[in-house]
Amino acid sequence: MVTRTYDNSHSDESTNGVVVMVEPYSQKEQIQQVVYRILDANLDRAREGLRIIEEWCRFGLNNAQLALECKRLRQDVAKWHTPELRAARDTPGDPGTELTHPQEEQRASIKSVLQANFCRIEEALRVLEEYGKLYHPTMAKACKQMRYQVYTLESSLMGHQRHQLLWRSRLYLVTSPHETLLNNVEAALKGGLTLLQYRDKTADDSLRLEQARKLQHLCHIYGALFIVNDRVDLALAVDADGVHLGQQDMPIAVARQLVGSQRLIGLSTTNKEEMQGAIAEGVDYIGVGPVYETPTKVGKAATGLEYVSYAAKNCSIPWFAIGGIDANNINDVIDAGAERVAVVRSLMQAEQPTLVTQYLLSQLNRIKPEL
Ligand SMILES: Cc1ncc(COP(=O)(O)OP(=O)(O)O)c(N)n1
Ligand SMILES: Cc1nc(C(=O)O)sc1CCOP(=O)(O)O
Ligand SMILES: [Mg+2]
C-alpha cells in the first residue's frame, strides 16, 4: 500500500522513537501518484532519446541545424518536468528498471541506434500525451505536437543519412536471381558493400516481396542502403531506401510524389540528354551505361568509355558506371573518370564475393581515398 507521513513525521527507522503517524493515500491520490510516475519516467525517456539523436547530429553529421532542432525539442520536453512530477519518482520500487530486451543490448549500426531511439521518443511522447490528459490538457496537446515534430525530424535525419551514404558509396551491387542470393549478398556486405539493388525481372510478386524483405533486413543489419529496381510499390512495402527506375518506367515526378523527398530515386541514362533530364528532374543518382555490352542486359548497345568521360566532367550528382564491368576492366573505367561502379555478374557469379568486393573497392578507393 502507498502511504504518506504527515505532521512532519517520518515513517522510516531513522525516526528513533519519534511517533510516526502514517495515513494511507486515498485511492484517487494513489492513482495520481501513479500517473505522476508515468509522466516522470516518460519525460526522462523522451529527453534521453533526444539527446542520443542530438549527439549524432552534432558529432556524427556536424549538422548544427539538426542538432539545434533536437536541443529545442529536448528543452520543450524539459519544461513539463515539474518538481511535483520529479517528486513522484521511485526508482528502487520500479520493476521496469530490471527489464531489458536482448535487442537493446546490441545495435548493428548507427542507423539501428537512431531508429531505436526515434521509436523510444515517439512512444514516450505518445504515453505523455495520453496520461498527460489526466494531468494537464495543455501538456497532452504539447506532447502531441512534439511527436509530430519528431516524425519530421526523423524523416529529415534518415533522409540525410541516406544521402550521405549514397555519396560515400563507390560500389553498387545489382542482384540477379540466384540460388544463394542471400549468401552472395551477405558476403559482399562483409567485404564492405554499402549499396544494394534488388533486381529480378521474372519472379512472381510473392517471391519478390519475400526476397526484398530479407534483403532489406540484411542491409539494415550491415548499415547498407537498399534499393528496389522498377517497383515503387515494392520499395514502399518493404521500407526500402529508394527505387531505381529506367527511362521507360514511371515518370520521376510521379515516383517522387509516391516515395517522398527522403527516399532515393535512381535513373538509368545512356546519353547526355538523358543525364541532363535526370538532373533537372531531381533524381538522386544515375546509372551511366552500358559501358560494355553485357548478357545481363541483352540488346542494349554499349555507350563505351566516352559517355563515362562525359559524366566525369558534367554530372553533378552521384553516378555509377554500369554494364560489363569486372575486376579485369575496372581500371579502364576508373581511368575514364568513374569514381563509382555498379555490377551484377562480377559479384553475383563470383566464387568469393567478399574478396571481389574488397578488390573492386580497393581499386575505386585508390583514386580519391575519401569521398
Ligand atoms: C544502377 C543501375 N543502372 C541502370 C539500371 C538499369 O535500369 P533499367 O534501364 O530500368 O533496366 P532494368 O534494370 O530494369 O532491366 C539498373 N537497374 N541499375
Ligand atoms: C541492369 C543493367 N543496366 C544497365 C544499363 O546500362 O542501364 S547495364 C545492366 C547490367 C549490368 O550487368 P553486368 O554487371 O552483369 O554486366
Ligand atoms: Mg527498369
Automatic annotation (TrEMBL):
Record domain Thiamine phosphate synthase/TenI: where: 171-346
Keyword vocabulary terms for this entry: Magnesium, Metal-binding, Thiamine biosynthesis, Transferase
Q: Which residues bind 2-[(2R,5Z)-2-carboxy-4-methylthiazol-5(2H)-ylidene]ethyl phosphate?
A: 294-296, 324
Q: Does the keyword Signal apply?
A: no
- In residue numbers, the region (Unknown) covers 1-149
- Name the family the entry cites: Belongs to the thiamine-phosphate synthase family.
Identification of the protein by name: Thiamine-phosphate synthase
Q: Which organism is it from?
A: Nostoc favosum CHAB5714
- Quote the gene name from the UniProt entry: thiE
